[in-house]
Amino acid sequence: GKSKKKECREIYSEFFKKFASPPKEIRDFYMRSCWVWGQILTEDKKFLEAAKIYERILSMLDKRRDSDADMWCNLACETAERYLRVAGEKTNVKDRAPLLASAKKLVNQLLWERGRPVYFGKAIAMKASIELLNGNVKKAKETIDEYLEQLVSIHNALLQHDPEGTQGLLKLSPLPLCLYMRAEMLWKEALNIASKKPRDDEAIKSLLFGEKKRNGKGRDGKGAFNYSINVFVKYPESSWAVPAGELSEAIKNFAVKE
User: Fold this and answer.
1) How far apart are CA 200 and CA 190, in angstroms?
2) pLDDT tens per residue across span 43-72
3) Where are the alpha helices (DSSP H) in 111-223?
């Protein structure tokens, strides 16, 4: 019950206060304990403390060794995600700076892991998130656009190995998240323009449904609605499918009312 969980937390807390760094003879035990303690802290929504505990494991791993590389990449992703989670809760950009710097340090290393495409893809999404949290929407969009071709290749490779989605590989694809982020950025930009007077209706339409084609027939389909509906329809196994569907509905309702 609750008393056992409390006792467990106290034991781990005391252990890590006593051993800030591990004696060599208990290295493996120490790493496993760090992992469990990090999971407990995450469960308690103490994301920054969890990230700092995971940093201890990362410092003990050598990602140049095959035996450590996958573990390092997986944990680096989880650590960076926790830094970003805490940064997202800060309203002041200055308060975010040290958290984003810690996340960026790990993300930059993950971007070299092209031989491990899932981690590489996650790093692209996190790189875009860092730019967003820094208040640089343009750079966030450019990041996704720059790597879009590689994100599609990663998704197609996963699709080849798991065409029915039964093995859970497609859920690992970073492509739907990046497309959803792209849609959300364009949507927010459109809302921002819509709130100003005089309103630029053509700019709003371009952001929501794509730029007009040069021949004047239709739009290029690179708008917030297009990206969001594509995630909803094409990637139903993704955890971003539902929010993407909700976003496409919100855009449709906005367009009808306006």
Assistant:
1) 10
2) 999 999 999 999 988 988 888 888 788 999
3) 117-133, 137-161, 175-194, 201-209
